[in-house]
């Protein structure tokens, strides 16, 4: 369940090291009802307690404005979430969490010294360069594969909305994410 939530959040815009979300994709992403998707999964309250603040910080980092300044907040939130997950082993499979967040773990732990060493340069150039790369990807990848649209469509699906209002059911949600999987498969081939 947690992996699906993090996957959807990742597909919405978390890439490699930071949330890479150019204005064109950001406009399209505004149509995604993230809270509806989360509620439709039927995650236990203990999961929400751990991941909701982290999800919020992920979204805050997606604007590609002052991204390097969001880095410390995102990493602090990630570490707090990790501690919460580890403190609730009966609620969440921490192995799934670790796999789903391995990229963020990498930049917040192993790559931290490199980010700190290059903080000034990253602060100066990261957002512009990342936006340029993402605009190119938008034209070649999402323009063809429609990932953002597929996530938005699923988030507004009447059955997903009903699940969200009635406690959620991850198995039923999995039956509705075919378009997202198709778009993800398309992205893999376009990026190669």
UniProtKB/TrEMBL annotation:
Keywords: Signal. It comes from Panagrolaimus davidi. This is Chondroitin proteoglycan 4 domain-containing protein. Residues 45-147 form the Chondroitin proteoglycan domain. It holds the Pfam family CPG4. InterPro entries: CPG4, CPG4-like. Residues 1-19 form the signal peptide.
